[in-house]
Amino acid sequence: MHWVFLSPHMDDVVISCAGLVWELSQQGKNVSVWSICAGKPPPGPLSDFAQNLHARWQSSLHIRWQTSAQAVSLRQAEDRRACQHMGAQPVYLDIPDCIYRTARKTRTHLYASEEALFGPLHRAESPLTQRLSRRLMRLLPPDAQIVCPLGLGNHVDHQLTRAAAEGAGRSLLYYADYPYARTAETELQALQRSGWGAQTWPISSEGMQAWVQAVWEHQSQISTFWSGQAEVQAHIAFYSQQMGGVRLWEPPPATHALE
Questions:
Q1: How far apart are CA 213 and CA 204, in angstroms?
Q2: Is 128 domain-assigned?
Q3: Pairing of strands 145-149, 172-175
Q4: DSSP of 175-201, one letter per residue?
Q5: Domain containing 78 — which CATH number?
Q6: What is the pLDDT of residues 220-253, one digit of tens each?
């Protein structure tokens, strides 16, 4: 079976469930990770918010880049190395990260603050969701098992990915978005009460090692969540132990609503 994991950004599947991706690849499954918001920024200046994020990433890497496109290329290089650890094939769509997206006519940045990242999708992006759904319908292998983020944490790109995947009309499994899942126990309990099923996939010690190594390749993003590799390993190990591995969620028949 071909497994396709949809990743809003180039690190989300890696952080959330790299151990499961590794286990599937070790079983001989064909596994690919599709990063949805992996495109280069449009022409024009960045918002102050995006510039501050770039500065943090550059500080983490001790390097400087000349253009925003170089930042995206660097993140793709990180992700390719991460996918090697997982045994997965990376696929990159050309939608820019939300921090780069602008209104078509005014070129106003749609998400120019931390608060905007975790608010509702901008009304101007309804056509983008529909276009992405149609694209997924066209590109996803017909025999693939699609695994989509639940959208825990409410990040707009996670909302976009889930809405577009559901609009594509395919049968979906869902993974919990980590590290947002650490504070989403209420939402996960609500899923169970509303009839969602969950299957837990155990992760071997080798799978845990691959998980940590894959996460560590995303050096530009580490400082967002962790102080160093020891903390990465401790937090991911604790999360996996709590779940008994990696848990994939399945909605009850004829519903995809997160209740």
A1: 14
A2: yes
A3: parallel
A4: E--TTGGGG-HHHHHHHHHTT-EEEEE
A5: 3.40.50.10320
A6: 999 999 999 999 999 999 999 999 999 999 999 8
- 24: domain range? 2-250
Q: pLDDT at position 253, please? A: 83
Structural contact between residues 9 and 38, judged by C-beta atoms closer than 8 angstroms: yes
Q: What is the pTM of this model?
A: 0.95
- Could you give the number of structural domains in the chain? 1
Task: Give the Cα separation of 71 and 58 in Å (integer).
Answer: 9
Q: What is the dihedral of CA 106, 111, 112, 115, to 10 degrees?
A: 140
Cα 21 from chain centroid (whole Å): 13
- Residue 6, CA distances (Å) to 62, 84, 169, 246, 259 in order: 30, 17, 15, 16, 21
Distance of CA 112 to the CA centre of its chain: 20
Tell me the backbone φ, ψ of residue 200, rounded to 5 degrees: -100, 130
**Residue 149: cis peptide before it, omega within 30 degrees of 0:** no
The tokens describing 127, both together, are 């056509």
Residue 3 has which token pair?
């497994």
Query: Would you state the structure tokens that stand for residue 60, as one six-digit string?
Result: 């983490």
Residue 141, CB-side half-sphere exposure with 13 Å CA sphere:
17
